[in-house]
Design a protein that fits this description.
heterodimer; A: mainly alpha; ABC transporter involved in vitamin B12 uptake, BtuC; B: 10 helices
Chain lengths: 286, 245
């Protein structure tokens, strides 16, 4: 029983981080129907930025948040204007190759610049674990999970309460009608990239406090983010949250009760079963 | 000076001439109808006026300013609103949110409005429009749950939200039941009495005759007749195109 409780807690915390990574993927897809295969490479870039700010300037990851997140936002907007803008109306195959190419450039660029070494931030402000009754709760993971919830809440309020948020939703639902109402669709696309990449930046900062920093760190997370987005329902913000948490919980429970080695195999078996029964995902609309 | 002035507009698609030299004008405060058989070029004309398509030749002036070839959102920002032939509400947003999407999106700094809540005055204006069109009770329903006729009214409310100088309506009565046609007709007339200018594509002749003050007939990408609704119905060219006489 205690084991299960512990598994659920760490599964929930991990799942919220997966959700936060999945969020940007889902947002960009939702607004402009483009799958960003390079998404987790921005996570890697955020982690390296956080790491170097600590290694070179002595800035704790938590304190580097106000630097890393705006930088990632600008990186997202910049990527849109430099690359994505040209393929918005291109065939899907071209879009896939473009973002996949971006993935290769970023990953091997990181290898070229920083090598294959595994790096780690020592003694971050967020460290250790809390004792919650009989359960251990990792402080950095708890912080990351809370940050994820805050980002989801902020994005939800932005989308539903502000004019720009509504314009973004309008663009997502019908680009042509949005244009006819005077909404600058290009700008909304750039904003979606900014927000999507900034949110993965938040995840990167918090992951740096309990994860190794290396050029291939994105691989595992990209797969989990895709699974989260697909499980929850492509293009819905809430779907990313539900999908990510489901994957985290499954992973935690199978890992603790069955076999840590094969936990991901179980996760993906369930994932495939869910999609067989509900191809549009848990919250996706037909 | 006409509010909307279209001069010698040409548009070809792969060698097929959709518009071959269309000229027309709409005066401030008018309701002008646009009729013509399928394929006459009516919707292409709308798309060239609103910037959704770039005309090959010719010019469009709105309130004296050239808007030819501007992208659609710029044209909308200059005060030209449109509705679409098949209604396309933002189905997942509520009716009220749909109308709010129509608020003016002038060239303002994104940062200035990104975090601001919708001002009270705009929200009141949106409510006012919903009430005027009889949709207030449905304000918080998702637009996708509204009937087709109600969605047409909603599109009209959204188009009016930006206080446009002119509204282009693409078949406002198509696919709508007779009671709803009466309602839409009466509301359009009331709006016109308040000073809103309309250019209307419509196949329902009877409704258009009661609505428009002046009508253009289009066939094969050209204006073949122009005049009052009564006159246009008796024009030999129009009769020939419609009835083969």
């Amino acid at each position: 029983m205690e084991l299960l409780g512990q598994a659920l807690i760490s599964g929930l915390l991990n799942g919220l981080v997966y959700s936060l990574i999945a969020l940007g993927l889902s947002l960009i897809w939702g607004v402009m129907d483009i799958v960003n295969f390079a998404h987790a490479e921005y996570l890697m870039l955020a982690m390296f930025l956080t790491y170097w700010l600590w290694a070179l300037a002595g800035l704790d990851p938590l304190l580097s948040l106000p630097i890393v997140v705006p930088v990632l936002f600008l990186l997202g907007v910049g990527t849109y204007h430099a690359v994505i803008r040209r393929i918005v109306e291109a065939p899907m195959v071209s879009q896939i190759f473009t973002t996949f190419g971006l993935f290769l450039v970023l990953r091997y660029g990181a290898f070229a610049l920083w090598g294959t070494e595994f790096r780690k931030v020592e003694d971050p402000l967020l460290e250790g674990s809390l004792l919650l009754g009989p359960f251990h709760v990792s402080v950095p993971k708890l912080a990351a999970a809370l940050a994820a919830l805050l980002v989801f809440l902020a994005l939800h309020l932005f989308l539903t309460r502000t004019k720009t948020g509504k314009a973004l939703q309008a663009t997502a639902q019908d680009r042509e009608v949005a244009l006819s109402l005077g909404i600058d669709v290009q700008r909304m696309y750039a904003l979606a990239w900014g927000l999507g990449i900034a949110s993965v930046g938040v995840a990167g900062v918090f992951l740096t406090t309990f994860y190794f920093v290396e050029p291939q760190v994105g691989t595992a997370f990209l797969l989990l983010a895709f699974a989260s987005v697909t499980l929850g329902g492509f293009g819905t913000v809430l779907g990313a949250l539900v999908g990510g948490v489901s994957i985290g919980l499954l992973e935690g429970v199978f890992g603790a009760l069955v076999s840590p080695t094969f936990k991901l195999a179980f996760v993906f078996v369930v994932f495939i079963l869910v999609l067989l029964l509900r191809p549009r995902g848990l919250l996706g609309e037909a | 000076m006409a509010l909307l002035e279209v001069h010698d507009l040409h548009k070809h698609f792969d060698g097929v001439a959709a518009l071959s030299g269309v000229s027309l004008h709409v005066e401030r405060g008018e309701i002008v109808g646009l009729i013509g058989p399928n394929g006459a070029g009516k919707t292409t004309l709308f798309n060239c006026i609103t910037g959704a398509l770039r005309p090959d030749r010719g010019s469009v002036r709105l309130d004296g300013e050239a808007i030819t070839g501007l992208p659609p959102h710029r044209v909308a920002q200059r005060g030209l609103a449109r509705t679409f032939q098949l209604v396309r509400p933002f189905a997942e947003l509520t009716a009220l949110e749909n109308v709010l999407c129509g608020q003016p999106h002038a060239r303002e700094r994104l940062w200035a409005v990104a975090l601001r809540k919708t001002p009270k005055a705009l929200e009141e204006r949106a409510w006012g429009l919903l009430e005027f069109l009889g949709l207030a009770a449905l304000a918080h329903r998702p637009a996708g749950a509204l009937s087709y006729g109600q969605q047409k009214l909603l599109a009209l409310a959204t188009a009016l939200m930006g206080e446009p100088k002119i509204v282009l309506l693409d078949e406002p009565f198509a696919g709508v039941n007779p009671t709803m046609i009466e309602h839409i007709l009466e509301r359009l007339k009331a709006l016109n009495a308040q000073g809103v200018t309309f250019l209307v594509i419509e196949h329902n002749m009877e409704a258009l005759m009661r609505l428009a003050q002046r009508v253009y007939a289009l066939a094969a990408g050209r204006v073949i007749a122009e005049g009052t609704p009564q006159r246009i119905q008796r024009t030999p060219e129009v009769l020939e195109v419609y009835y083969g006489q």
